[in-house]
Design brief:
mainly beta, about 10% helix, nine-stranded mixed beta sheet, seven-stranded antiparallel beta sheet
């Protein structure tokens, strides 16, 4: 039925309406009652804060580059908006070094300037031989001493050049800071001309790194003459700003610039510069060559356009042009032909075709045509090699790699297809330096990339992964609770109980799973964020391990490597590991001096001495002797038990008990003898011990339990006439005992202690050394099971703390002391990962220790983790980042749900064009599907189930699943069911609706039998048109077939249509909100329909309540503002469009009024789907209450997330007008500050009106959290907001959000600091990670 668009007068304004013809002609039998004239409701003024949770993983370029110095083998992974520098380690793994993402613009192109200075260890004595040609001195090896850089470190061998879309050339390198970290140093150059079409669309640099060309997509290119690296090193050594640009000149051409490259000059004529351009014109392509001597004025060289030579149609638009090192030649690679081109300077070019060793299409090929060659790279060879030969790796989009050798006299000498790598390849392809072979890095925009080791006459071996979960088409939030959905009241109760210090019921963060990749590399990806710990060695011991310690062998003449001392439930064990981690052996009791007959409580390896304390003995081991001391003999009490122990230098503290009486005993170690210093009787139970300092004196800190609560007791280790034996007792406001305690040291007149508790809390206790009664305690929630704390000596933060428990491991860093007391600013989860098992679930770590002291070649980030019986040697990365977990499905996943009843992921997977339904275990990743088919025989009441590969309705060619949803059905007679609804688009464009029933299968109890879920098609219905969208209620089902919307109920096992509506365009998404149907259309925005009120009930037509005056193409929507008003049906719906936009539409409480736009945002990628979930880490989950003007847009603790097809994940939060004005004001100033945008900021002072937030246009209501994050990370609010008029307005906006009114009550010179302090607190609140 057709629709009509008309205009009606409403509130003295003419507004557009779209109604059906039947609705226009229909006479209403029950007119609506009007309750007198009331003023219409007004849309709220609220803003939208967006923040990137996870950046897109797609890598556009992989460039080997030495941005630090010649001793490092680094590579740059460059995406659209960031640069990641990684180091290729000895194990072939890429280690993160530095990351930069504050460009403020998309990166259009990238290349490297300068000669590499790789080191070859050619002889056994370690002689260094440089590769390639360079006059760089060996000083550029820049080997740091003890981890610190030289005061005047030279410029590195190479620079990274980026072309930004906003018209800036950026030159980058890295410089080491005093902390050992690496920071980017940059200089930029503005490309002139605002009317240029995509400057930098093509970019090339000549082999001598003297000239750089930027070409637009058509009609013009710019040639830059560069300063030599020697000149730049001199500038840098003098402390001057780098000025790489020496001269420039633009040259106009006629046509589309298809390719532009510099060619290698003839051997012996290194001053020669050759530029090649392929220009495409209507019906013809031309190859133009510009040739000149280095140093010639650019104006003379490009005084006129070169006409060039006409190319044959076979070579008209090549896919790749590869400059060769010999004969000034190049390769031309098209879809159907490959050839070498030479003699380009002596006349028309000569093309010599050759055959590539071209293998069959791989499983990674998508499409009907032959796969294309997409990238090339040149392996690094010693300089003389390239005098008469060149070698090239060619990559095809489906993962095939070809190796080419080109001679100086002949054309192609070798063409070998060396391998087919398991990943798609586009422009991300490079060869890294390795003394014994080549290392290939491959990547694409579909599926993960990889690192491959290629040795001569050997098949390539994969040695690492580059995570890439794009494209992502759907995702879901999975609640980890197994007791059903937690309602709002329960969540409120949990939060309230935690705030009051009461016990709380289990509540774990939700998990995020996405459909990612395609083809055989398709997977279900779990999004995780935190510190990655790469597993290098994974051992499984025969018993559960409580704790472990790494200790030295002390006698290097006996064995290389180190020992691992394991504390087992009833004994101890010692493992010997070689330094290379290739050999592991368990030591017998009679071969080592340690006590293995009882459980180890504590151990220390320090000052060339190892101390072991077990439940019965204290063992002292030095390189020359060892001794064993029974504890009962030392303390003269034969019948006591040892519960806890701790060691620090020459001091030992143990907690002993006899019956219910506890004592803390202090011992002193002198060489290999032990003496008793003092014993303290304890009232209550000792739960943990630690040694440290308090008021500059050594003390013992003990966690005590009295039955009413925990107490922290501090005992002196030395008791004299001047000191008191009475311990300092501090009552902690908690109801759970301490499990472990660590002293982080004494500083600024205070002592910081960190303690774990039995209920999963971690307490940070700040004590005043001058007044023991003064202390502050901050509390962080890590889980519901007991938490234990361990020291974590990170390279940049010696005060970091590891937290272990039954849940995920975590690390606390950046301890600060402010008005809120002492606390750790950053807390991140730690995710152990295995490069050979990307789907490995994260193990529960119960103990952790470092290896740096025992194996000096390892740094502080090398850790030994204990997970039950498993021993993991890991390398902890130094920066938090996405740590995805990939569950391979060997197909393209297209839809996903989570069933809490079945505790399984429900997903639709397409394999070889056939769609199938699958159930996956989210913990193991195993496919637990058991598809069945029902067969009912006539005359028999029983139903027979048959095993099949596909349920009824799936498994047919060219049948794609359009939607997957869950139907919690409840009939009028009380029948309940939990079904899954699939809409299928068949080859003939008809629609197929499937109702699927699923239930757990009764699996045998034998060990090792996985659980399975049986499922079958219960109902099936065919429709004449494609089913565009589906949503459900308890009693019915909404279907959009073409433009026809219908509401179906089940009667006598058949669908019956009870309501209809004609849409102006097909629905892309539907959902029922507060009893009303929200329909998102492909072209006509949001329509809200009434299907159950009196007028709708009396007719078979749904009633249109609200629609949008503006036609918008829509992808997905979510309700975000139902809590804005107490009036019924007044809410805000957030929807996304294909043009990267997000729109907030307000629906008024009065029917038939149009929707109003309240905010709009423009993102870097379109949001395909929104979800809401409690995804924050446990320590943030309980702190996520609305503050500082944040509007609650869902159940307490929940956040709104949006997924884009490029794999990026965004978070969304609603802001009150006051919060929006402050944050948008900061953003406006930050966008004009070079401290935040060093390349693209305008740096204008301007009037106040330039920075004052304006409500219109609605795009101004968007606050970019990524910009605010840079302000917070760099701590530059004082610099960004420095002008007097801006500071005054900043104060006014802050005072409105000052919940404690501390600003108004404070006077004096320190008041300004409080304003900035509050602003930083507000930024931390809004920018707290949601994952």
């Amino acid at each position: 039925m057709s629709s009509l668009q008309t205009y009606v007068l409403e509130n003295d304004q003419w507004v557009a309406r779209t109604i059906s013809a039947e609705e226009l002609m229909r006479e209403r039998t029950a007119p609506r009652q009007r309750m007198g004239r009331q003023p219409p409701s007004k849309p709220p003024t609220c803003g939208l804060l967006t923040k990137t949770v996870i950046e897109s993983p797609v890598v556009r370029w992989v460039l080997p580059v030495q941005l630090r110095c010649a001793r490092y083998n680094d590579v740059a992974l460059i995406s659209d908006h960031s640069v990641q520098i990684c180091q290729l380690g000895h194990d072939g793994q890429l280690q993160d070094i530095a990351r930069k993402n504050d460009f403020g613009s998309r990166i259009r192109n990238a290349l490297v300037m300068g000669a590499p200075e790789y080191i070859r260890r050619g002889t056994e004595d370690g002689t260094h031989v440089k590769g390639e040609d360079s006059d760089t001195e060996m000083a550029y090896l820049c080997a740091p001493v003890s981890g610190f850089p030289f005061q005047n470190a030279p410029l590195p061998p190479q620079l990274l050049i980026l072309m930004l879309e906003r018209g800036y050339l950026v030159f980058l390198f890295l410089r080491q800071t005093p902390t050992g970290a690496w920071d980017f140093v940059s200089t930029s150059h503005k490309v002139p001309g605002q009317r240029l079409v995509c400057p930098g669309f093509h970019m090339a640099i000549d082999p001598s790194w003297s000239y750089l060309t930027l070409a637009c997509s058509e009609n013009l290119f710019i040639m830059y003459q560069l300063e030599s690296m020697e000149t730049l090193r001199a500038q840098y050594a003098q402390g001057c700003r780098l000025e790489p640009i020496k001269d420039k000149h633009a040259r106009a051409v006629k046509g589309i610039i298809h390719k532009i490259e510099f060619l290698q000059p003839l051997h012996g004529n290194e001053e020669q510069i050759i530029l090649l351009i392929i220009i495409v014109q209507p019906e013809v392509s031309r190859l133009a060559v510009y040739e000149w001597e280095r140093g010639c004025p650019l104006r003379e060289v490009f005084s006129e356009e070169k006409g060039g030579y006409r190319l044959d149609d076979a070579y008209r638009m090549p896919l790749l042009v590869v400059p060769l090192k010999v004969r000034s030649a190049f390769l031309v690679i098209t879809e159907r032909i490959t050839a070498t081109c030479s003699d380009i300077l002596s006349g028309p070019p000569t093309f010599t075709p050759f055959e590539l060793a071209n293998g069959e299409d791989t499983e990674l090929h998508h499409g009907t045509h032959e796969p294309l060659w997409t990238a090339w790279t040149r392996p690094i060879r010693h300089h003389p090699f390239h005098a008469n030969k060149d070698v090239i790796y060619l990559a095809r989009e489906d993962g095939l790699i070809n190796f080419l050798e080109i001679g100086d006299e002949s054309a192609i000498e070798t063409s070998v297809g060396i391998c087919s790598v398991n990943c798609n390849i586009d422009s991300a392809f490079a060869c890294l330096f390795q003394p014994l072979g080549d290392v290939l890095v491959t990547g694409g925009d579909s599926g993960p990339g990889a690192v491959w080791n290629v040795e001569a006459r050997q098949h390539p071996q994969r040695i690492g992964w580059i995570p890439n979960w794009s494209p992502t088409v759907d995702f879901v939030v999975a609640n980890s609770s197994t007791k059903g959905t937690i309602d709002d009241h329960a969540r409120n109760s949990v939060a309230l109980a935690h705030a009051n210090g009461d016990p709380v019921s289990p509540l774990q963060p939700d998990r995020i799973f996405a459909c990612s990749g395609r083809g055989i590399m398709g997977a279900i990806t779990e999004f995780r964020y935190g510190m990655q710990a790469k597993i290098g060695l994974d051992l499984t011991y025969s018993s559960h391990i409580r704790q472990c310690w790494a200790i030295s062998t002390l006698d290097e003449s006996l064995e290389d490597g180190f020992y691992l001392l394991l504390a087992l439930p009833h004994r101890s064990a010692v493992l010997h590991l070689s330094g290379s981690l290739t050999e592991v052996s368990e030591k017998d009791d009679d071969t080592i001096p340690y006590d293995l007959s009882s459980t180890t409580l504590a151990a220390e390896d320090a000052d060339n001495r190892v101390v072991q304390i077990t439940t019965t003995h204290i063992i002292l081991v030095t390189p020359t002797k060892h001794s064993r001391h029974p504890i009962a003999d030392i303390i003269k009490e034969p019948s006591v038990n040892v519960a806890h122990a701790t060691i620090q230098g020459s001091k030992i503290a143990i907690a002993i008990y006899s019956g219910s009486t506890f004592k803390v005993v202090v011992l002193n170690v002198d060489d290999t003898s032990i003496s008793l210093r003092h014993a303290f009787e304890i009232e209550g139970e000792v739960t943990c011990l630690a040694l440290g300092k308090f008021a500059s004196n050594p003390v013992v800190m003990a966690g005590l339990w009295h039955g009413r609560g925990p107490t922290l007791a501090i005992f002196p280790t030395e008791v004299s006439n001047q000191s008191s034996e009475t311990p300092i007792l501090i009552e902690l406001q908690s109801k759970f005992a301490l499990t472990s305690i660590i002293s982080s040291g004494e500083q600024s007149g205070g002592v910081t202690l960190v303690a774990g508790t039995k209920n999963g809390d971690v307490l940070t206790i700040q004590l005043d050394s001058s007044y023991s009664a003064s202390y502050e305690v901050s509390r962080d929630k890590y889980g519901m099971s007991p938490s234990s704390v361990f020291p974590g000596t990170m390279i940049e933060d010696s005060s970091s703390i590891f937290v272990c428990g039954d849940a995920e491991m975590a690390i606390m860093t950046k301890y600060v002391t402010d008005q809120q007391g002492g606390h750790f600013e950053e807390l991140h989860r730690v995710w152990p990962t295995d490069v050979y098992d990307p789907g490995m679930p994260s193990p529960s770590i119960n103990s952790v220790t470092t290896l740096h002291q025992q194996v000096p070649e390892y740094d502080q980030s090398t850790l030994v983790m204990i997970a039950g019986p498993r021993i993991l040697i890991t390398e902890l990365q130094r920066r938090p980042k996405p740590v995805p977990r990939s569950l391979p499905v060997r197909g393209t996943p297209v839809k996903i749900l989570y069933s809490q009843r079945l505790e399984a992921l429900v997903t639709v997977i397409s394999r070889n064009g056939l769609a199938s339904l699958h159930f996956l275990d989210p913990t193991t990743g195993h496919d637990i599907s058991h598809p069945l088919k029902i067969q009912r025989e006539k005359g028999k009441p029983a139903t027979t189930y048959y095993e099949v590969d596909y349920i009824d309705g799936l498994g047919f060619a060219s049948a794609g699943v359009v939607s997957l949803s869950r139907w919690r059905y409840k009939s009028a007679g009380g029948y309940h069911a939990d079904w899954y609804v699939l809409s299928v688009r068949k080859e003939d464009d008809r629609g197929l609706l499937l109702i699927v029933s699923a239930e757990p299968e009764n699996t045998p109890t034998e060990t090792g039998m996985p659980r399975r879920i049986r499922f079958w098609t219960k109902f099936k219905s065919v429709y004449g048109g494609p089913i565009r969208s589906v949503t459900t209620t308890e009693q019915g089902l909404f279907l959009c077939v073409g433009n026809h919307l219908q509401y179906n109920i089940i009667e006598q096992e058949r669908f019956k249509v009870t309501k209809k509506y004609e849409l102006p365009s097909p629905a892309s998404w539907m959902q029922v909100v507060d009893g009303r149907l929200h329909v998102l259309t492909t072209k006509h925005s949001l329509i809200i329909l009434d299907y159950k009120s009196d007028p709708a009930i009396e007719s078979d037509q749904m009633v249109q309540l609200h629609t949008d005056d503006t036609c918008r193409s829509c992808l997905h929507s979510i309700e975000v503002g139902s809590f804005l008003s107490a009036e019924r049906h007044q809410s805000i719906t957030m929807l996304s469009d294909p043009m990267c936009g997000v729109h907030g539409l307000w629906s008024p409480s009065e029917d038939e009024r149009p929707l109003k736009l309240v905010f709009r945002a423009e993102l870097q990628a379109s949001v395909r789907r929104f979800v809401r979930g409690n995804t924050r880490s446990p320590w943030n989950l309980f702190k996520n209450r609305p503050r500082y003007g944040c509007i609650q847009s869902g159940p307490p603790g929940s956040d709104i997330l949006g997924l884009s097809i490029d794999g990026s994940l965004q978070s969304f939060a609603l802001l009150s007008e006051d919060a929006w004005r402050l944050l948008r004001f900061i953003q406006n100033l930050a966008m004009a500050s070079r401290a935040i945008y060093p390349y693209t900021s305008s740096s204008k002072a301007g009037d106040d009106d330039d920075f004052e937030p304006e409500v219109n246009p609605k795009l101004n209501m968007h606050v970019d959290g990524d910009i605010l994050q840079r302000c917070l990370d760099k701590h530059v609010l004082e610099e960004v907001i420095s002008e007097p008029q801006h500071v005054q307005r900043f104060r006014e906006l802050l005072e409105v959000l000052d919940e404690g009114k501390a600003l108004l009550s404070t006077q004096g010179t320190g008041r300004d600091a409080l304003y900035y302090k509050l602003a930083y607190d507000i930024l931390r609140y809004y920018l707290t990670p949601v994952l």
